[in-house]
Amino acid sequence: MDGDFVAWDAPRPVLGARGRLVGEHKALLRAALVLLAVMTAWKLYIACTYHVLWDEAHFAVSGAHPDLAYPDIPPAYPWLARGVTAIFGWRVLPLRVVALVFATAIPFAVHFMAEPVVGKRNALWAAILSLAVPAVAMNGTIFYPESALQLLLAVMCGCLVRAVASQGLKWWILAGCAAALGMLVHYRFIIPGLGVLVFLGADPLGRTQWRTKGLYICAAIAVTGLVPSLIYNAVNGWPAIQFHILNRPQYAFSLNYFVGFAATQIFMAGFVFFAAMAVGARNSMVTARGTPSALVAYVGVVTFAFYLLQALVNKKIMPHWPWLAFVPLLAFLPGVLITYVDQAANRRDRGFRSALVALGPIVTLGAAAGFSIIAYAQAHGMPLPQGLSTVTNSKSEDWSLLVPDVEHAAAVVRARSGKDPVWVTNGHAQAVHLEFPGQPGSKVYTLDSPDDIATRFVVARHRWGLDRTALVRDHSGEDVVLVLQAPEFLYHEAEHVAFYKQVCTLFSDVRRDRTTILPPGQMRFDIYSARVRAAPDAPTTSQPCPLLPQVYIGRPALGDRLDVDDKGHFFGMAADPHGVTKVDILLDGKVVAHARYGLDPQGARAPDVLKYDPGYPNVQYDFDFAKGTLTAGRHTLTVVATRKDGATISSEPQPLVVQ
Predict the structure, then answer these.
(1) Residue 201: in which H helix or E strand, if any?
(2) Is 515 helix (H, G, I), strand (E, B) or coil?
(3) What span, in angstroms and rounded, lies between the C-alpha atoms of 350 and 339?
């Protein structure tokens, strides 16, 4: 009878190894190279298609002003951009090709890192899987530091593993060089260094390294990568600390944000791959404690935990910051996946496990396909499928469409004054888009926008002689072209109101030229000609500032999509020195609603820049759309206010999409 029963704690029978998926090592290597070639070709297509992103323009323009560092970043990428544009021209594609070269080298660096940890065969599989983990595979389509950071981290880990295993001084030196370069690329490279420190304190093998001179040589070399940034920040009032530590974080406990952040990380790793990396890291830190593989695990786990735990209380942790952690953990991925499949109890179980593992690359292919559709549609001005439209954001606009309108305003000023006017815009983010990839050497002045103050870009623009102070000093009495990006909720954000108050005192003879809305309709620019005052005028609220709207739409905001039966609360403000009697809502030129005017909501009073209206502060309105008013499609929303003398004033026409 005993033979009919199996003890509850008896080992579960498994099928065991089923043989290699791909035969000899050379065959696997050929397959890896083919996959790498396909991925590289796809990335090159995206690089040739996608519009210039602000980060790329920022690096290129910053590089045109050589310095030891910049308010938000160390100097490496601006320096690199300067070298590339000097050789290949003031264009974005050569920059992206450089990023693509870095990304293409990542699988080789992963192989270099993983080989002493898991052996040659699994190291090659780790390199292949680096092309299947979205957080690593998507690198190289834009000129952004992520590809360089991941490449340098893999190289540093590979050198450190060899250093602690052999105590070879050359590996310590090379690890220090990789770390120094990483520090020159971005401050985020400091975080993997924390992982190394935890290994040196928590792991038995790590603690023995304190007695080796190589460790100190490595650390000394690594610190040199921070020296230029330290000098720059010390001289300029520590803008990097002000931005990254004081101004940027948004501290508030939010479980929802944390869950969303964690879900994003799992998706970008592939949920199967994420679980496998977690198991591999745990095995290396516990089961393989005291071996070089533990070093790799500590670097990955500490880097990931550093950002994940912050996401509980800081809503400004960017989703891509923890992706560095996946690079060292790739080393453990093949072994864990192979073991998982080999431990299947029967063929059916093995088939299920194999299919589950295969979902990882399938997710990557799906993400790549979606990204390709978005890039193609945006490059050709095509409407996106409804399911993909939510993926886009204001960073993907084609700013080259704005330039002809700005040049038109410049031509008007040139005809009037006989001089080429300088261009002036809100802040650094707008300026770099107008400067790159426009005419090489072009300079755009900025007006110390709230964003520039928070990010400390005012420090750089001041050093370059392109800030508000330099504009008044160098061009007082001259006509200029103003290109002002309209902020969302202008009259509901105190910092925007304060900014416009200051800007209104800087200019006289302000003439609106036109308004431009960039596709897909989320970004508006008001273009003016104006004369720079020799000294700022005294602020006044007795007359409207020509740079501020008299009829303002708060909601629906630019770019909002409404449902045909939307019952949302829509609102705005309307003011005039003659007073306003009524406000009408027009859709495609037809009145569809009469607003309730004369409101003064508690806790949301209109700003004092509208005090010129005799009815102030009762200058707000709200409205809704009656059932059947909204129909699916693209429409134009306009708000018209009737003055007490019977004349009308209106808002700028605003595109509205109803679905």
Answers:
(1) helix 190-202
(2) strand
(3) 11
Q: Could you say which of 547, 566, 599 is where a domain stops?
A: 547
23 CB neighbour count, 10 Å cutoff: 9
Query: Closest Cα to residue 454, out of 179, 247, 282?
Result: 247
Instruction: Give the contacts of 50 (CB within 8 A, at least 6 positions apart).
Output: 141, 142, 375, 378, 379, 396
List the single range of 19-28, 41-50, 458-467, 505-514 with lowest mean pLDDT. Answer: 19-28
Chain centre distance of CA 208: 40
pTM value?
0.91
Query: Looking at residue 362, what DSSP letter applies?
Result: H
Q: Is residue 465 part of a domain?
A: yes
What are the backbone angles phi and psi of residue 654, rounded to the nearest 5°?
-125, 125
**Residue 6 confidence class, pLDDT cut points 50, 70, 90:** very low
Query: Could you tell me if 332 and 277 are in contact, meaning their C-beta atoms sit under 8 angstroms apart?
Result: yes
CA–CA separation, 294 vs 155, rounded Å? 16
> Across-strand partners of 386?
none
In which residue are the tokens 């610190």 written?
A: 223
Q: Which of 347, 463, 355 is nearest to 67 (CA)?
A: 463
CA dist list (Å): 371 to 45, 46, 102, 142, 365: 11, 9, 20, 13, 10
Mean of the per-residue pLDDT values for the chain?
Answer: 92
**Residue 392 within a domain:** no
Among 504, 527, 547, the domain boundary falls at 547
Tell me whether residue 470 is in a domain: yes
For the segment 380-415, what is each residue's pLDDT rounded down to a tens digit?
656 565 555 544 444 678 999 999 999 999 999 999
